[in-house]
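Repro case for the chain-ordering regression, as requested:
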Amino acid sequence: MTAADLFRKQFDSEPAGFWAAPGRVNLIGEHTDYNDGFVLPFALPQRTIAAVSPAPAGEWTVCSTVEDEPVSFGPTEPGDVSGWAGYVAGIVWSLRDAGFDVPGARIAIDSEVPVGSGLSSSAALESSVLTALIDLGDLDIPLERRPALAQRAENVYVGAPTGILDQSASIRCQEGRALFLDCRTYEVDQIPFDLAAEGLAILVINSNAPHQHVDGEYGARRKSCEEAAHILGVPALRDISVDGLADALGKLDDDVMRRRVRHIVTENQRVLDTVELLRAGRTRDIGPLLTASHASMRDDFEITVPQVDIAVESALSAGAYGARMTGGGFGGCVLALIDAARADETVAAVEAAYAGASFTAPTCWIATAGPGATRL
Ligand code: GLA
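-- result from build under test --
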């Protein structure tokens, strides 16, 4: 069922409009966002669609093609609405809390973004609803302010301590571009990213590994980074450069904390190096940076699982230029930079490796850089 069909069935009328917001993959720059660092995501063609109409002031009803019951709410406080609808209530709350006059709305949701795969299905949901409410209410909120409003919904209302990567990607990405974002200043640079023109492709491998311990482990990584910044006397780990890394590590007693810091500092540099190579048209040369990022996540940040490690290794053995896990970790997806002509062989190699290890089969597809959130 489409969002339009669901809207008609649920509300017995036509929606006023449709809004779409994409999921994302992050090319490089993992866990750097909440350290005020750099990220480089691109938007997926898979999107969340919201069919929306105005409703009386102070009344919101939301339904979804994958949920049984619609959820209705009035003005709420953080945590009042839980589950999937909490992301929608969180957006309403965040806008109201920032002083905006949010229109009441009827909302029907359908999503193509796989849930629980680290492709930001929640940010796609938040961003589609946010964009719809801004348009319907004629709210004056520039694009660069929007991701932080959606992030507050997730941090404060839903209670997940995530950074600004996912919402920025869903809202600010452009078709055929990767979004180079400075998570401190919110400045962006749209980097041309048309791989097909170069005979290249990004293969996304969904490990289909069950997500385990995600919330607790994510929060623990964040806490460790913030404590390290405090000990080092800097506002955030972004303020440590690779040149200053040895010195910084020398000031930390805890070996685990030292490795967390090394990941963030080197990862920020890898993002900068990747952007430089892409700008110079040397796309193949970013491969080793992707692979080094994976090793850093595996060994220093310790957020990978055997399913993603095996996907990276088998893609590399099949000739990928580089490969890494993308997203928060503990499962989720791997991306591999490959020659477009070698996609089938690479998929076969990854599938064979999974079968050999008796893992649930992965799901693979070629990702292209799609547009950010928009009214359709
Ligand atoms: C999740 C979070 C993001 C970011 C990534 C890791 O996707 O939502 O804010 O921290 O993990 O890069």
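Ordering looks correct now. The two ends are 18 Å apart (CA to CA).
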